[in-house]
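Severity: low
Component: inverse-folding endpoint
Summary: output formatting inconsistent between runs
Steps to reproduce: submit the following structure tokens with default settings.
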């Protein structure tokens, strides 16, 4: 079964950075473009419109060709055209999926970031980012509600002879409620990303803040650390060995978190989830170490079968999700089999999205209320 999961994830990752889709029909492009919310301060481009089209402006007067990896137009993405002033312009051929997308520029064969956009770690490098406003963006919007804290921690890792980094989200009121202890979700990024992804691209902290403020969930801590996945070249998932990271997470990071934060340090109050390759890590570690976690989450990260789970594993909930443009039937089939075997399993399909952060933002939003019940 593990080989099948690796194969499935390899296929998924081939599409991890294909972030657009064609719109049927011949709807005219509306000229209501506005700067993307992911732009550098004071930069007007790139821009997006109400239909989801993206428009780019690049100053490169000496360049011969400029392409944007984002959008339609084949492997080259969106091809830009130079005007008489040496400025390159272009608009995607169709609307983009809602949510966050990585992209970069290819200028005369070289790879560059857009100087107008903020950068986010993805594709094993800092990439430009753009946000296509979503119809449901309120659940991760920055609002005037009590906010938690995301802090960097450095923890010793004897197994790797190094000091490693994690980011820890503590909910609103953590500092004031000096005796309250909290459950913990260990939340993993995907291949090509790092421990900054869930806060920067995923807005996990804002999702939590808003849900807590609305009374939708009880507060819990989230821990995000580097999954050691980027040492494996793209397409080489079969060569990834889970044991080194499993040791870092279970034997080094978890004890550090339990010693330095007010956690409920037992299996019943501990969850693990991850997106894409982070889901593969979650799948392996939860099966290898069933005494550590009671709640499992695979977000576009494969599936569980009942046969894989030990009878005495004590699983309280399994959450499996993906985008509607991925493989929703496989997710639903897996969850149905888990339910028939007596497990509390939940499936979720993000409508209109693929292997991208809007799928995973929505998945966290759906999963969080199910944890620690």
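Observed output (run 2 of 3):
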């Amino acid at each position: 079964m593990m080989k099948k999961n690796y194969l499935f994830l390899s296929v998924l990752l081939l599409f991890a950075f294909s972030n657009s889709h064609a719109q049927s029909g011949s709807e005219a492009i509306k000229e209501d473009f506005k700067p993307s919310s992911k732009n550098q301060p004071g930069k007007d481009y790139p821009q997006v419109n109400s239909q989801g089209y993206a428009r780019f402006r690049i100053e490169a007067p000496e360049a011969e060709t400029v392409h944007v990896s984002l959008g339609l137009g084949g492997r080259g993405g969106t091809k830009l055209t130079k005007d008489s002033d040496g400025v390159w312009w272009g608009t995607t051929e169709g609307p983009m999926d809602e949510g966050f997308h990585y992209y970069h520029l290819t200028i005369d064969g070289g790879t560059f970031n857009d100087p107008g956009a903020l950068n986010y770690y993805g594709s094993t490098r800092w990439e430009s980012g753009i946000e296509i406003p979503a119809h449901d963006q309120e659940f991760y919007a920055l609002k005037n509600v009590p906010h938690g804290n995301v802090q960097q921690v450095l923890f010793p890792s004897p197994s790797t002879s190094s000091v490693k980094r994690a980011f820890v989200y503590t909910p609103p009121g953590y500092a004031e409620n000096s005796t309250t202890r909290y459950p913990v979700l260990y939340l993993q990024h995907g291949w090509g990303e790092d421990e900054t992804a869930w806060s920067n691209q995923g807005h996990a902290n804002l999702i939590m803040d808003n849900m807590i403020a609305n009374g939708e969930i009880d507060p819990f801590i989230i821990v995000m650390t580097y999954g050691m996945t980027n040492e494996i070249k793209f397409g080489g998932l079969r060569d990834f060995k889970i044991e080194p990271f499993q040791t870092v997470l279970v034997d080094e990071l978890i004890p550090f978190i339990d010693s330095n934060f007010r956690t409920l340090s037992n299996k019943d109050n501990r969850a693990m989830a991850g997106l894409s390759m982070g889901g593969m890590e979650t799948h392996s570690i939860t099966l290898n170490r069933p005494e550590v976690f009671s709640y499992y989450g695979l977000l576009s990260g494969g599936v569980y079968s009942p046969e894989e789970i030990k009878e005495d594993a004590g699983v309280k909930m399994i959450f499996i999700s993906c985008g509607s443009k991925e493989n929703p039937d496989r997710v639903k089939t897996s969850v149905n089999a888990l339910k028939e075997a007596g497990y509390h399993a939940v499936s979720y399909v993000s409508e209109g999205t693929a292997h991208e952060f809007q799928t995973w933002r929505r998945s966290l939003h759906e999963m969080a209320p199910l944890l620690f019940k």
